[in-house]
Specification:
The complex is a heterodimer. In chain A, the strands form two sheets. Chain A has a two-stranded antiparallel sheet. Chain A has a two-stranded antiparallel ribbon with strand order 2-3. In chain A, a hairpin with a 2-residue loop joins strand 2 and strand 3. Chain A is globular and about 50 Å long. In chain A, 15% of the residues lie in helices and 26% in strands. Helices cover 43% and strands 22% of the residues of chain B. In chain B, strands 2-6-4-5 form a four-stranded antiparallel sheet. Chains A and B meet through helix 1, helix 2 and strand 5 of A and strand 8, helix 7 and strand 10 of B.
Chain lengths: 68, 223
Amino acid sequence: MVEMPEINQDKCNRCGLCISVCSCGAIVLVENKVTIIETEDCHWCTTCEAVCPTGALTCSFEIIVEKD
Amino acid sequence: MTIDAAFLKSISYFSVMSAAELEANKQLFTEKTVQRGEVIIMEGELSDTLYFVAAGAVKVFKTSAQGKEQILSIARPGEALNDIPVFDGKPNPVNAQALGPVTLYGLKKDKLLTIMQQYPKVALNTNKVLAERMRQLVTLVEDLSFRHVLGRVTKILLNHSSEGAGANDHLTQQEMAAMAGTAREVVARSLKTLEEQGFIRIERHRIVITNKKSLEEIVAESG
C-alpha cells in the first residue's frame, strides 16, 4: 500500500484546485467526488494541500528520529 | 472566450457592483489561459494589465539572489496577482507561476481606471482590498523577521518525533503552522532551512531528524 494524501469529503467543496495542480494525476473526480488514486508517482510535494481552500486535503508527515 | 459576469462578482474589487453593471462592463476584460509551470508575472517587469485568477491556482513568490524561494501566497480564483505594480506604475515586486492549468482574466490599467471613475464605489472598495493585502503581508513579515518561529517549528518536530516504535504522530504542514501560530508558508521555509543545515531530511511522507542535538540547541536558544 502506498501512503497517499487524504481527503475529507465533509470539508471538500469540489472546487477542483487540487486536481488542477496535481502533476502526477493522483487526484481525480469520480462521480462528483474528489478521489485519490494510489500511485508511486506521488512525490509528496504537498501542493494539493497548499491550494485547498477548505483544508479538506491533507499530506501528513511522520516525524522520526534517525538511529545512529 | 466568454467572460463570466457572475464570476466577476466574486472578485473582491468588483463585489460592490451589481449584476447588471458587471454584465455591461464584462467586455472590458480579456481571458488568457496558461499551462502548469508557466511564469505569469516576472519580478522586475512592468505591468499594464491587472490579472485575476479565474480558474486554477497560482504561486506568488520571491526569489533571493542565492536562489532561495519564499512563497508569499497561493492565489486562488477571484484573487488579483499584480495590483501593486498596476497601481504604482513601478516594476513587479514578485513572481507568479501557474501551479496547474490556469485561466486568467485581464483588465488593462486604463480600463480599470475608467471603471473606478464611473463607479466610485469600486474605487472606495479598492482601499479595503489593498488594506487586506497589506495586513496579510505585515503578518508574514512579522513571522519571517523573528527567529523564534524556527524555534517553535523545531520544538514541534521534537515533541512529535519518535524513535520509530509504535504508533507515531503524523502532522501536516498546516497543522504545524496552526501549532506554531504562523503561516504554512513560514513552516515550509523553516523545514527547508533545517534541511539545508543538515539537521533533518525530508522524505516522502516522513521527516527524519538526523541531528537531534542541534535541534535541541535551536529550541534552547530561541527561549
